[in-house]
Design a protein that fits this description.
The protein is mainly alpha-helical. The protein folds into two domains: 1-95 and 156-184, no CATH class; 196-358. It has helices spanning 2-26, 28-64, 69-107, 121-133, 135-155, 157-193, 201-240, 245-255, 261-266, 268-276, 279-304, 313-351. The longest helix is centred in the middle third of the chain and has 40 residues, at 201-240. This is AI-2E family transporter.
């Protein structure tokens, strides 16, 4: 009878939860508010926290030199902005030429092989692959999308000004949040714990410590993994003679922050270019892909990430794939550390017997 009562209580709670979700789904303005908060506040906070863990080692160096926290935080931001601006300046100058070459490689995938098909079976195979995936149709769709947005940009200058102002306001918000995280990040934990009674302080202190450790391990580890991937793939592209190696490696670096699937997404454009250059380039690119993926799985990830998050790789894959389906790239980036935070919290709840297992 006791078991039945417990089961009934659990079922009632689950049903009430689903009923609440259904009721909230009928109130459209709530979702509009949530969407606005997500775009205007939550995304800048996520970006700020990500940058905080990257810049924290530099900020700690200034603090260890005896510089006040306010000045050290400001110096960290200034140095980071200068370095980012210089890298962006030189990279953009080179990227313009690379993008032009990349566009030519994609828009002119395969030369006319009608006169040599019978003499060259490799060209015949590549030509059949090209026809089956219909690259020209994909290029046409991409050009139509770009044309649509360019026309939209030219036809509504007032809306474009608002968009530019919104972008700059978000950048400013990220910088402000980042400054205060660098300046007062160590105080947030103590101030948060002070809101609760003495009974929960040990639990909260350990939980927040483990959360900070998990986030730091994930962000710094994912940065090193993405950078390692970009360097290895750039070297591989140079060895096999792949054009536009720097731009393609940059895409790998950016998408490398999305666990597991990011690297595969980054290989789409190189694969199209390889198809345009023939079967020999496809084979060479496949070798590079397999080599880099093997080094990532066997060397880079175990060495950099270690077992800091203590999450099984299969769990990571399911989390990322589900997050991409429902929330896009941002959700894919956030879901793994969010899962680690939830896991740390639940383990602490059991450890301090706030949740009891009977």
């Amino acid at each position: 009878m006791i078991l039945n009562n417990k089961v009934i209580k659990i079922l009632i709670i689950i049903n009430l939860l689903f009923l609440s979700i259904i009721l909230f789904s009928k109130i459209h303005f709530i979702f509009k508010i949530i969407g606005t908060l997500y775009r205007c506040i939550l995304v800048p906070i996520i970006i700020s926290v990500f940058l905080f863990y990257i810049l924290k080692p530099l900020n700690n160096i200034f603090n260890q030199k005896g510089i006040s926290k306010g000045i050290s935080s400001l110096l960290t931001l200034i140095i980071s902005l200068i370095i980012t601006s210089l890298i962006s300046y030189f990279f953009i100058r080179y990227a313009i030429l690379e993008f032009n070459g990349l566009a030519k490689n994609i828009n002119n995938p395969i030369p006319n092989t009608s006169t040599t098909t019978s003499q060259n079976p490799i060209n015949s195979i590549v030509n059949e692959i090209y026809r089956s995936i219909n690259i020209n149709k994909l290029i046409k769709i991409a050009n139509n999308i770009m044309t649509h947005y360019i026309q939209k940009f030219q036809s509504n200058p007032y809306e474009n000004i608002n968009s530019i102002v919104e972008v700059f306001s978000k950048i400013l918000l990220v910088l402000l949040i980042l400054f205060f995280l660098l300046k007062d990040g160590s105080k947030f934990k103590d101030k948060f714990i002070d809101f609760f009674s003495e009974k929960y302080k040990d639990f909260l202190s350990e939980t927040l410590y483990n959360m900070n450790k998990a986030l730091n391990a994930y962000v710094t580890g994912q940065l090193m993994v993405a950078l390692s991937l970009a360097i290895m793939i750039y070297i591989g592209y140079k060895i096999i003679g792949m054009s536009n190696a720097l731009i393609l490696a940059s895409f790998t670096f950016i998408l490398g922050f999305i666990p597991f699937i990011g690297f595969f997404i980054a290989m789409i454009i190189p694969s199209l270019i390889a198809i345009s250059n023939g079967l020999y380039m496809i084979i060479k690119l496949s070798i590079v892909f397999i080599t880099v993926q093997t080094l990532k799985g066997r060397v880079v990830v175990p060495l950099v990430m270690s077992s800091a998050l203590k999450i099984h790789p299969l769990t990571d894959i399911f989390l990322v794939v589900t997050a991409v389906s429902y929330g896009g790239p941002m959700a894919a980036f956030v879901v793994v550390p969010l899962y680690a935070i939830v896991k740390v919290t639940v383990l602490s709840l059991y450890k301090y017997k706030i949740i009891k297992i009977r």
